[in-house]
Amino acid sequence: MPEESLVRSLTATDSLFPGRVALGCANLGNLMAPMDDATAHSLLQAAWDGGVRAFDTAPHYGLGLSERRLGAFLADRPREAFTVSTKVGRLLVPDPEGEGLDLANDFHVPADHRRVWDLSADGIRRSVEDSLERLGLDRIDVALLHDPERHDLEQGVREALPALVALREEGLVSAVGVGSMDAEALLACARTGALDLMMAAGRFSLLDQSVVPETLAECRRHGTQVLAASVFNSGVLAREDGDGLFDYAPAPAAVRERVATLREVCRRHGVPLPTAALHYPLTEPLVAAVVVAGATGAQVSENLDRLDTPVPQALWDDLRALGLHLP
Fold it and tell me: Would you give the DSSP letter of residue 15?
């Protein structure tokens, strides 16, 4: 595919997500702990009642369980009323020899399927078609290449992204992008000019601004919007006691010290640290939405309430003085 045909079709002023928040649906796939269908439904209902109309999922989340639960919830809602993003790159293949639960990937679901990397054009198309079936939809609003650096980043840029662009031109997906925790992968994909959206997972947060300045500059140049996910960096910014995970592992001492400094600055301005963590990405005009999540409907509602809490400019001024990137 010629390089010029990769360039995104949307303009920089188009909005890919309704509102400023999307619900992250990894927990619907029983991430870290089992969740029954009733709890999953109540979590989605809390988000919907709170005004959320954008939902982010992936085949990886619970071997398709997250997509199936989300699709069931959205089945009786007008298609034009919501936006769904899902991911490509890992195909789900039945595994008759699979035993126990998928705990090696942190999902409490039967290991009756296995994930198979496929970044070929045929694999990308099949991934989208399989997701459409699980979701019960006729199109995907946003299709994101998921963690290409964990398999073959070069193939992801060379083959998977052009395949997504072709599906966008065909109308099977409305917008395309990449989702990753790896700053180098995000930069490599942003440089192609193909992306409508870049999902930066944990790389644009109070603790980690790895996408600054080079990747954001590429996004600005190409009119690529940013979705800020994992803004609590796996939980350490969601707690007031300084404990919790950082990027899915126990937070090291240097991170805990930085969190303590951030918390003290926030305290002086009467702002809880989790509230500042949710608001921070939205200070950047390129950010289309921030992802919120939760293990229960109450947690989702709490995060939505935090986003409705005003944050004084003086707090950002003080954090800028500590070296935090702010526009």
Answer: -
DSSP label at residue 28? G
Q: What is the pLDDT of residues 23-72, one digit of tens each?
A: 999 999 999 999 999 999 999 999 999 999 999 999 999 999 999 999 99
Using CB atoms within 10 Å of the CB of residue 84, give its burial: 0 to 12 exposed, 13 to 18 middle, 19+ buried. buried
Type and span of the H or E element at 128: helix 121-135
Per residue in 287-322, is it b (16+ CB within 10 Å) or e — as a string?
bbbbbbbbeebebbbebbebbeeebeeebbeebeee
- Say what the pTM is: 0.92
Distances, alpha carbon 200 to alpha carbons 38, 81, 163, 275, in Å: 30, 25, 21, 19
The rounded distance, in Å, linking the Cα atoms of 47 and 58 is 18
Q: What is the pLDDT of residues 283-295, one digit of tens each?
A: 999 999 999 999 9
Residue 135 CA to residue 192 CA, distance in Å, equals: 29
Cα–Cα distance list, 287 to 35, 196, 220, 282 (Å)? 31, 12, 11, 6
Q: What Å distances lie between residue 192 and 39, 152, 208, 304, CA to CA?
A: 41, 16, 24, 34
Q: What are phi and psi of 144, to 5 degrees?
A: -115, 130
For residues 128 and 118, what is the distance between their CA atoms, to the nearest angstrom? 12
All structural domains of the chain? 15-316 (3.20.20.100)
Show Cβ contacts of residue 58 under 8 Å, excluding neighbours closer than 6 positions.
25, 26, 66, 67, 86, 87, 144, 146, 179
Q: Which of 61, 82, 204, 280 is catalytic?
A: 61
Rg (CA), the chain: 19
Tokens of 258: 């930085």
Question: Rounded to an integer, what distance in angstroms lies between the CA atom of residue 102 and that of residue 209?
Answer: 32
- Nearest Cα residue to 171 out of 122, 199, 193, 138: 138
Strands 113-117, 21-24: pairing is: unpaired
Residue 248 annotated in active site:
no
